[in-house]
Specification:
Layout: H1 3-7, E1 10-14, H2 21-34, E2 38-41, E3 55-60, H3 69-81, E4 86-90, H4 93-97, H5 101-114, E5 120-124, H6 132-144, E6 149-151, H7 164-174, E7 179-183, H8 189-198, E8 202-205, H9 208-218
Parallel strand pairs: 1-2, 1-8, 2-3, 3-4, 4-5, 5-6, 6-7, 7-8
Helix pairs in contact: 3-5, 5-6, 6-7
Keywords: Cytoplasm, Lyase, Schiff base
InterPro entries: Aldolase_TIM (IPR013785), DeoC (IPR011343), DeoC/FbaB/LacD_aldolase (IPR002915), DeoC_typeI (IPR028581)
Family: Belongs to the DeoC/FbaB aldolase family. DeoC type 1 subfamily.
Length: 221
Amino acid sequence: MNSAELARTVDHTLLKPEATTADIEATIAEAADLGAYSVCLSPSALPVTVPEGLKLAVVCGFPSGKHHSEIKAAEAALSASQGADEIDMVIDVGIAREGRFGDVEADIRAVREAAPSPVVLKVIIESAALTDEQIVGVCRAAEAAGADFVKTSTGFHPSGGASVHAVSLMKQTVGDRLEVKASGGIRTRADAEAMLAAGATRLGLSATRTILADGETSGGY
């Protein structure tokens, strides 16, 4: 995979709470310059203008997921009305840890109904905070609720971010019916390619330029 191909798997991400309007505008421009698939932003950044060919992804219930489903649904609907092509929602990790997968499904379904297709729905499961059994249960709930992707992490949880093991397990669970996004703690070209090899089809990166340049300077890509 060359750098241009890798870039087309990337949601170039800016979710820092201290991000300014200038930071947001610079991130959008950088995403377009790098040839990323999308730019991923906080909902308060909207409305924004993105160049043609660049998708706009917006987080929902971020980063804790401890919001009422009605609030997540309203947030997703507003983002979609302001131009979001994709919604990256956070589940309530606590209920997943309790094994309440029916409630996880209901939470996801509320957002899906508020932002129906063609808006793409990604479900952030915080895989590092879950057991393998819980990861499987949440992935099945996401599929049943009509999600398009399952996503490893917010990148803000103290348990950690994406792992090859979690991506592989998520891919095994959803097969080709859903896609898998790896996000959180991916900082090198080797990390990025390992996630793709494990079954991810999308990457959430903030250090996109550095990761793409890593392959170019090493001469191996």
